[in-house]
Amino acid sequence: MAENTIKVMIVSGVREQGKDMFAVQVNDEIFVLDAGLKYPDSSLFGIDVVIPDMDFFAKYSDKIAGIFLTHGHADSIGALPYILRNYDINVFGSELTIALAKLTVQRENRRFKKNLFHVIDAESEIDFKNATVSFFHTTHSIPDSLGIVVHTGAGNIVYTGDFKFDPSAAKHYRTDMDRLAQIATQGVLALLSDSSNAEADFPNASEKDIARYVQEVFANAAGRIIVAAKASNFTRLQQVFDAAKKTNRKVLLTGRGVGKIVRTALDLGYLTADKQLFIDSKELKKYEDKQLVVLETGRMGEPLQSLQKMANNRHRMISIHDGDLVFIATTPSHAVETMVAQTSDMVYRAGGTVEQLAYAKHTSGHATGRDLQLLIATLKPKFLIPVIGEYRLLEVHRDLAINAGMNPKDIYITKNGDCLNLEKGRFYLTDPVPGEDTMIDGSGVGDVGNIVLRDREILSDDGIFIAVATIDRKKKKIIATPKVSSRGFVYIKANRELMNETRKVIEEAIKTNFEHKKFDWTELKNDVRSSVEKFLYKQTNRRPVVLPVIMEVNQNRHRAMNKKKENQKNKKAE
C-alpha cells in the first residue's frame, strides 16, 4: 500500500436518517466511526431493522483497528451485535456508551467477548501505528456523548456524531468548547458533521426550560399520565423522574428494555432517582390515577405502536381510559407525523387527551443551522463532509457552510459507498466501498434482498394464487381437474366462475406444453404460471403471486395397484 494513504469512507448514514457508520483509513489501518442501525419504513415489508453493509467487514476486517462510538443510541451502536457475531474487533466508547453497547450485543449473543469493549473518556488519546485517536465532549440527549478526532500527518479528521450546542446543559451533557478550539489550532483537514436538524432556523429550547414545562404538564394533570418517550433519551427520562417526584407520583416502567437501561444508568450515576419512585405492574391497583406515571418506550425505543395498543385495549399492561393524559415527550420525525396524528385520534376515542412536547417547545438532540455554522467557525475545517441526514439536509448544511465563508469546492455531498482519497491536498472519489443495506428479518442477516421484498410487496398488494395439478408425464395427460386457491386476491365463493375458468387455463397450458415441448418440470411450471398470470390480469387487472404446484402420480405405486387388482380378479375367477 502506498505510504501516507488517507481515505474517508462513507459506509452508511448519508441521504438517510440513522444507520451511521463512517471510516477513516490511514495507510493500512482503518478506524470505524459508529456502527448504527435504522428502523425500516413501510416499504420494507417484515424487516425488523436495517444495518450497514456487512460486506465492508468481510473485505476490510483485517485492517480495522477498532470501532469508535460517539454515544449509546441505536443509530450509533445498533449494528454491533451483527458485526461482533463474526468479527473480533475492539470497540471504544465512554462508560455509559459501552454499558449500553454491551446490553445491545447481549440481546443477540449472550456469549459475546467482553474483552473487546474498552472504556475511554474525553481525555483519552489512543496511539495506533499510523494515527492517534482522541475525543471531546459533545451535547446530545444522552450523557457522555463524544466527538472523535483521528489525528493524521495531513491534519485532523473530526467526526461529531449527533450533537448540538446548549450552554445550559448539565454536567454530563456539556460540550467542551475549549477542546474544540484546541483541535482547531492543530489544523482540521476534514469535518464530518451532523446534518439531521440543519433546516431549523431558530434555536433549540434549553433543557432547563423543557424541564420546567414537563413539571407544569405533570402538575396540571388531574388523572394518570402516560409518557411516550425513547428509552435512550436520558435527558427526557430524568425530567420525567424529577417531575414525578415533585408531583408525588409513582413511575411504572412498562418494558424490560427500558428497565435494564434505567437500572444501568442509575447504577452508573447518569440518572438519579429514588428506588421508591418506581413500582411494578402488580402495585398499580394500590394507587389512584392521580398518583401514577406510566413510562412507555415501546419495542426498540419506538413508543407510538404501544400507545395504539393501549388505546385499542391490546396492550399487555395498560388500557387508556377516561381522564388519562398521554404526554408525547419525543420529537417525531417527518416520516412518522401521520402516525402521531393517527395515534392521537385513537387516544381521544379511548377517552384520553394528548399533549405533545414538540408543539410547545422546539427541541431536538441535533444541531440547528446556527449551531452548524458556529462549529465551522470554531474548527475552521479545510474540507466539510455533511453526514447523518437525508439528501435535502446535506444540501442545506452545504449552503449554511457557504454562508459561513467556506468555498463550495471544499464541501463534498456524498452517498453511501463513496470513498474519498486525499491526493495532492484535495479529496477525490476513488473505488467505492460496500455501501448497500443489510436487512435483518428475525434471526436472518442479509438473507432478505430486493427480490424477496418485491414479492412481499406484490403479496401485500394483490395476494397469492395457488394452482395445483396432478399429471402422468409418461402418458402426457392430466389425472384430475386442477385445484385452485387464493389468499388476499379475491373472495373465492363470490368468484366461482373465475376459478372455474382459471382451471381451464391451467389444463390448456399443461396440454400445450405436452404437445409442443420436451418434458421439463421448470418449463411446465413457468408455462402454467405465465398463462395464469396473463389470464388473471386480463380478468381482474391484478397481479397476484402465482404459485404453480405440479405433482406426478407415483408410477411404481400405480403399477403395483394395477397388479394387485389383477391378482384379485384372477382369484375370484378361480
TrEMBL record:
Gene: rnj
Taxonomy, superkingdom: Bacteria
Domain Metallo-beta-lactamase: 18-214
Record EC number: 3.1.-.-
Binding positions (substrate): H362, T363, S364, G365, H366
Keywords linked to the UniProt accession: Cytoplasm, Endonuclease, Exonuclease, Hydrolase, Metal-binding, Nuclease, RNA-binding, rRNA processing, Zinc
Assembly notes: Homodimer, may be a subunit of the RNA degradosome.
Stretch forming the signal peptide: none
BP term (GO), one: rRNA processing
Cofactor(s) demanded: Zn(2+)
InterPro entries noted in UniProt: Metallo-B-lactamas, RibonucZ/Hydroxyglut_hydro, RMMBL, RNase_J, RNase_J_2, RNase_J_b_CASP, RNase_J_bac, RNase_J_C
CDD domains recorded: RNaseJ_MBL-fold
UniProt name for this protein: Ribonuclease J
Protein family membership: Belongs to the metallo-beta-lactamase superfamily. RNA-metabolizing metallo-beta-lactamase-like family. Bacterial RNase J subfamily.
Cell compartments where the protein resides: Cytoplasm
Organism of derivation: Lactobacillus psittaci DSM 15354
